[in-house]
Write a structure and sequence with these properties.
The protein is an alpha+beta fold. About 35% of the residues lie in helices and about 25% in strands. It has 11 helices and 12 strands. The strands form 3 sheets. Strands 1, 2, 3, 4, 5 and 6 form a 6-stranded mixed sheet that branches. The chain has a 4-stranded antiparallel sheet with strand order 10-11-8-12. The protein has a two-stranded parallel sheet with strand order 7-9. The radius of gyration is 20 Å and the shape is globular. The termini are far apart. Bound molecules: cytidine-5'-monophosphate.
């Protein structure tokens, strides 16, 4: 009989970053999490994950690129362990335990940035390791594994732009985006803790006028009906203020406020905040235009026309929003 592990093949996955075009905090749940109404879009900017079966031993992880903290705490290893439990003996070489995996992660998405790189790596791990093992999980089990790893993981597991509700477990695909809008991302070297931002949100929460919730519902409707790149860019002003976490993030990292204003002056564009930050974004008609704008930001940082807060240089990147029709293509 052939060794079942020798028949397994390695896989490579791209784990995209995300942007929240809107983020309305609808309420606080009994479990301490918050209910959201948020339009999430995946970006071409992505981490690269490879997973290879090992003969024996424990799962291993090697990380290169951006610092993502100690590998032992990395969501990739947690995702391997959680998926292994869910699969049990039900894999192509089973019954018996699934083989250990050697994971290599190239971090191109900065960590603690509001871009959900760690959650995306976790989703790519679940999906990728099921392929390595030749295993399947029912949709509700995959979702339970994803939720256990983090609120943003179900979005990445679904793939494509989506309306995300609940804690993050309710993901409704939004398929109407036509084109590939460009995005400039500027992430100051000020890592932001998401729990700190939600705690600040709870502390300062005054009942808003519902404008962010309305903008979010409106954008989701437009996405469903069909939205061109030009339509989306034209809405940038509304979207840039459609994030309920903005006041809380500003409290946690006050230096972000003047920087956001300076960036908006420099680019002559509305600037939004992704998730709990600190990544700031501006929308463009194409990645080509975004690249020109990113060059302007880079030059201003170098010549002192723009001063970024934080202990390290900001991450400045031109990328694009990936719509459903482009999914699967190599960014
Ligand atoms: O689920 P995840 O571990 O990614 O969430 C990180 C933190 O963000 C949580 O501990 C919680 O403080 C906050 N959070 C929240 N409501 C959500 C998502 C995250 O309060 N829907």
């Amino acid at each position: 009989m052939t060794d079942p592990i020798r028949r397994l093949s390695p896989v490579v996955r791209l784990a995209p970053a995300k942007l929240n075009l809107t983020l309305s905090v609808v309420g606080r749940r009994d479990d301490g999490y918050h209910s959201l109404h948020s339009v999430f879009v995946p970006l071409a900017l992505a981490d690269r994950l490879s997973l290879a079966p090992l003969g024996g031993g424990r799962d291993t992880l090697h990380v290169s690129g951006f610092d993502a903290g100690p590998p032992a705490d990395n969501l990739v290893l947690r995702a391997l362990a959680t998926t292994r439990i869910a699969v049990g003996g039900g894999w192509s070489g089973g019954p018996g335990p699934t083989p250990a995996v050697a994971a290599r992660l190239e971090k191109r998405i900065p960590a603690a940035a509001g871009l959900a790189g760690g959650s995306s790596d976790a989703a790519a791990t679940i999906d990728g390791v099921l392929e390595v093992w030749g295993a399947t999980l029912e949709a509700h089990v995959r979702l339970a594994v994803a939720v256990q790893l983090g609120s943003d993981v179900p979005f990445f597991l679904a793939g494509g732009p989506a309306l995300v509700e609940g804690r993050g477990e309710s993901v409704a695909p939004l398929r109407g985006l036509h084109g590939q809008p460009g995005v400039v991302l500027v992430t100051p070297g000020l890592p932001v803790s998401t729990p700190d931002v939600f705690a600040a949100f709870d502390a300062i929460r005054t009942h808003g006028d519902g404008a962010v919730r309305m903008s979010s519902a409106h954008l989701a409707e437009e996405f469903r009906a069909g939205l061109t790149t030009a339509n989306l860019v034209a809405r940038a002003g509304v979207l840039a203020s459609a994030n309920d976490l903005l006041p809380a993030t500003s409290l946690v990292v006050p230096a972000l406020v003047p920087f956001k204003r300076a960036l908006s002056r420099l680019l002559g564009r509305p600037i939004g905040l992704s998730g709990s930050g600190p990544t700031l974004w501006a929308l463009y008609a194409s990645e080509h235009e975004a690249r020109a704008a990113a060059a302007v930001v880079g030059a201003a940082l170098r010549d002192g026309g723009l001063t970024a807060p934080g202990s390290s240089e900001p991450f400045v990147c031109a990328t694009s929003i990936v719509s459903h029709s482009q999914q699967g293509s190599e960014p």
